[in-house]
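Researcher: Next sequence.
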Amino acid sequence: MNKIVYTLLFFFIYNHNFYATNYYVSHKGNDNNTGTIDAPFKTIQKAADIMSSGDVCFIREGVYREEVIVLKNNLTFTNYDNEKVIVSGADLITNWSLSDIGSNIFEANFTGAETQFSMLFVDNKRQKMARWPNNETDEMMMPEDIKTGYEACQVFNVKSGKNGRRVKFPNLTGFPSDHFKGGIFRGIVGKKWINPMGIIESSTETELTVTAISDDWGTNSPKMFTDNGKGFGFIFHLNALDQPGEWFEKNGKIYFMPPVGENPNDMEISAKNRKLAFVLNNRSNIKLDGINIHAASIEMKNTNNCEIVNGSVQYLWPFFTRKGYAVSKTEQGGIFIDGDENLFKNMYIAHSWGHGVFIDGGRKNKIENCFIDNIGWIAQFTSSIQNFGDGTVVTKSTLSSSGRFHIRTNNKIEITYNDLYDCMKMGQDAGSIQSTNGGKWGIPLDLKGSEIAYNKIHDCNTLTDGNKEFVLALYLEGCFNYTVHHNLIYNFKTDVVPDGTFVYLGPRMATIKDCYYYNNTVWNVDWGLRVWNRDNRGDVENVRFWNNIIDGKANDGETHDNDPNVNSLFAKLSFKTNLRSITGNGNTLFVDANKGDFRLKMNSVAIDSGTEISGITDSYTGDSPDVGAIEYGSNFPDVGSNINPENISFELISDTSTLSTNSLDVKKESIIIYPNPSKNVIRILDNYGEKISWKLTNLKGVELLKGRSLKIDISTLPTGLYFLTVNKTKTFKIIKS
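Model: Next structure:
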């Protein structure tokens, strides 16, 4: 054996762990155990502390309320046998007592939260922070509907400095003076991306006096007072706690109003107390598989080649206040990534006042088959995905409801085979995919050959209040060196001012070049192409629109009325073999445009009417490429995630799980009863979705109660032992304490 072979053998042995160990964790284990299958640890952190390269940590079903700091490389943390595992940033709140601040309001001690505000959960389901007006729904991003907790208001410029701001709520009546003093006002007024916030100094009927938190309000920025400062707003305050399910945190206590007749001591109540569930900083080759994160997030600074797969991250970030309105990772939260070649796959990411995923740097990070939904309730430049990384890939994913952007990028990105819809629910003047040179108006942003292809981008609107309802599929302002091809873009229509737009280019005092728009199908939009040649200092070079079908009813033009510099830019754009004359419902071209079926009909004028483009139209059939995103006789590719959010629920996964801590090959129980003992209420957890029927008997077999609900009221029974029979097959001993 020669020296080279010896060297390779030594290198292989030195870098591989031939004695990798499996460790096991159960929430009913003990950290003094050995971590074996029969003697599991209690915490994931204990396993992380002792694991070595190549080791695997198997986690049993349950809720783990901890922040796990991973200390070694090349480790795997996974759920055992597909059991549901939750790592939570929320801690249980116990020892509730009736408060003297109002009827049916309880209080409990709560300290140590790492964020400005918290979130409260009952059985892991989010409760509402006390506000006026009440949010009577689960919808967080429809301020035009008063049932979602917003009211019409107007902000005023009163004097210089941050103090003495005035807010008028015409319907703020029936409350005594200073009823809301010390609370927080949050508005969506003026330019609908600034969102003024302030601390309430005093309140009367119909009016607040506020100390501004938002810089633009304190400096009397005219942006705050466009449209006469009118818009929507709400108040957060303890005195607004007036409906079941509401809560508020103040002076080291949490106040909560449970459903009428229920005692919170009989409920599993938790509050968000940590920012993070996993810290993977400076690590490589870490895999989190099958783990659900609740009320927390993941931090990955200088993290490389890690995989986060087959799980979920929900309720990432609570309400927050901030001075500015631009992008901020520290204030706006989100899954934080800064490293190379990390993968998020088969993940559900949802429910946040702030960002979803924040990629601060690194190379070739990938998001694949993820469903990212209900992100950015605060709306101030929040994004489902915010990208500063180089070579980021977003593919085969679904990005649904967002307060502002779906994807916002400042670097090279590949966005392919995604389904993007319902952006801009809480703002105006932005869009689904955005990139901009921002304040560097004279310096164009190089997107380094970015590709946006084979996506559905559709059904987006914006706030109707005001005179600028600008919402776009592609907001690529002052950017260059990218290609947009084979996308289906449709249903960008706004309600009052027709502002739904296919693409906005800028260039806004910059010269943009090498921007290619090929074979896109654009339908039911107010505008096609829009530009803004600010101060007549912008220019375009080699910007092509070829082989596109664009709604003939849509206009092209400036984004600012009476701009005399637009025509000079349009004359420099390259338009070739586009279809723009087709109007009506599109059914002369498409199979059924009204139902989103944009396949070409037989004998459509789009067939064989396009231009050959190397690398874009290579697979065409017929004499020439077809115009639009779908070649005749073909279907548009399957896009979006295959994850169904309706199948993901944590509401009944309890800390009081009765699963055995013995050998982990024992199949989990299908029916779980908790809490037991209980003073007032027994709950039934059905793991397998069976129809539930039950009866409760005394020790002599006399039936006392029966029903089909998952909640059993035992408050009227005397203390003692009872039997609960579920579905005539399983009997449990119940203790009324």
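Model: Residues 5-17, 658-669 have pLDDT under 50 and may be disordered. The two ends are 75 Å apart (CA to CA).
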